[in-house]
Amino acid sequence: MNIEIIEIPKIEDYRGNIAVIENDVVPFDIKRVYYLFDVPSNSHRGGHAHKNLIQLLIPLSGSFDVVLNDGRENQIITLNKPDKGLLIKPTIWRELENFSSGAVCLVIASEVYEEDDYIRELDQFLAYVNQS
């Protein structure tokens, strides 16, 4: 599956740790940053794939599951450490679920929002990846 866990460099200190995201950590030029918060534990976010966009998801607080599908296999990744991010490359269906109380998901994206880049229906996604 075209995903990768990215280790985010951290500086450990007895007063609290600092995680640092600079150009050498993110393997693309950053064009957009947003975050999800106050997501009810029974809600689902995502539910789409991208044709070209690359995303890095980082759990700034709490935990959540990322359900992934590349058209051939499914995988669930639990994100719960703010110094580890999930890099999702194009043509991977993703759904976010099981948000813990107070969870915050930071998303760093390779492109600005473009509706044409989204595939929002699972059956359309499966047809898209199977024609490639």
From TrEMBL:
InterPro entries: QdtA_cupin_dom (IPR008894), RmlC-like_jellyroll (IPR014710), RmlC_Cupin_sf (IPR011051)
Matching Pfam families: FdtA
Domain Sugar 3,4-ketoisomerase QdtA cupin stretches: 1-129
SUPFAM superfamilies for this protein: RmlC-like cupins
Name of the featured protein: WxcM-like protein
Originating species: Flavobacterium endophyticum
